[in-house]
Amino acid sequence: MIAPKILSINGPVLKIQGENFAMAEMVNINGLPGEVIALKPNIATIQLYEDTAGLRQDAYVKKTSQPMSLTLRPGIIGGIFDGIMRPLRACKENFSTKILAKEGQILNEGEIFAEVAETKIITYKAMLPTAISGMVSYAAPDGKYQSDEKILTLQTPKGSLNLTLSQIWPIRVPRPVKQKLTDCIPLTTGIRIVDSLFPIIKGGTCAIPGGFGTGKTSTQHQIAKYCDADIIIYIGCGERGNEMTDVLESFACLTDPKSSCPLLERTVLIANTSDMPVAAREASIYTGITLAECYRDMGYDVAVMADSTSRWAEA
C-alpha cells in the first residue's frame, strides 16, 4: 500500500493521495487535526482545524480510522474549550473517585459505576458504555485516579474489558435514549417577558432571530445566568473574543442562587471565536450537544446556548 501523500495545500483544505480513507475520518498532518470532507478515487480532501502556515507537502500524514470524537470525562465543568474540545486553560487531572460497583456485581449498559465530585454542586457519574454488560471481576478502592486510569474490569461475552472514568463518543452520533418524554415542564429563564410571552419548555428548542445589535447575545447571557437548569453549556460559535471574555468573567463573579456557589461551577464554555480556525466552528455545535447529552444521561437538566447558529451555518 502506498503511503498517503499531500498533493496540494489551499488554506486549511488539503488534497491527499492515498487509499482507504473514510468520510468524516479524523487525520493528523504533522500533529494538526483534520477531517475528511470529500472522497474521489485515490484522492481525499481534508479540512484542517488549524492554521496551515509553514506546512509542507512532505508533511507526515497519519490516519486514525476514527470519526471526530470527544473524550467525555470529569473535569469539564467550569472549563473553557475550543470548538473541538481542546482546553484553552489547564484542566484538573487527578480526581477523588468513589467506586460504586463491587466485585461480582452484574452491570448493564448505562449503569453508573463511579462518581466524582466535579464541583460542590455537580457530580460526574461514570456510566457503562452503550451495548456493554457483564460481571465486575475487579473494582479499585476509593481514591484519586486520572481519567484514563483503570478502575474497573468487566467480564463480558466478548472477553475482559477495562473501564476508566472517561469514554470516547463521536460528536455526530446522537447518544441513545430509551424514550423521548413529552415536553410539559417550563424552563424558568429568569426574564419575565420571556417567561410570560415566549415560554420555553424543558426538552424543547427556541431561536432568537434579529439583526446586529438587537440584543440576541445579551438575552442568551441572561438566560444562561438565571435559568433553572442544572448545567449550562454556552457555545460561542464565531463570536467576538471580547464577548466570550465577558461571559467567562461575569459567570465567575455571579453567585448561583441555588447553591450560593460561583455560577461557573455549573457551566461549560466552548469558545470558537471569530479569530479561531473556521474549520472547527462547524464542529463546535456538535461538541456542545454531545456534552449536553452526556450530562443529560447522568440525570441533569442541561441548557445549551449556541451563539450564533448563522455563523455556524456559514462555516
**Structural class determined from secondary elements:** alpha+beta
Radius of gyration, in angstroms, nearest whole number: 21 Å
How confident is the prediction overall: mean pLDDT?
A: 89
Distance between the termini: 35 Å
**Could you give the order of strands across the largest sheet?**
1-2-5-4-3-6
Shape: globular
Helical segment count: 5
Strand content: 25-35%
Major beta-sheet overview: 6 strands, antiparallel
In the predicted model, the low-confidence regions spanning at least 5 consecutive residues are none
Helix content: 10-25%
Number of beta strands: 22
Keywords, separated by commas or semicolons:
6-stranded antiparallel beta sheet; alpha+beta; about 15% helix; about 325 residues; 22 strands; about 35% strand
Detailed description of the structure:
The two termini are 35 Å apart. By secondary structure, the chain is an alpha+beta fold. Helix content is 17%, strand content 35%. The chain is globular, with a radius of gyration of 21 Å. The strands form 6 sheets. A 6-stranded antiparallel β-sheet has the order 1-2-5-4-3-6, with no helix packed on it. The protein has helices at 192-197, 216-226, 241-253, 281-297, 309-314, and strands at residues 5-10, 13-17, 25-29, 32-40, 43-48, 61-67, 69-72, 80-81, 94-99, 106-107, 112-117, 123-127, 134-139, 143-146, 152-156, 159-163, 167-170, 186-187, 200-201, 231-237, 267-272, 302-307. The protein is built from 5 helices and 22 strands.
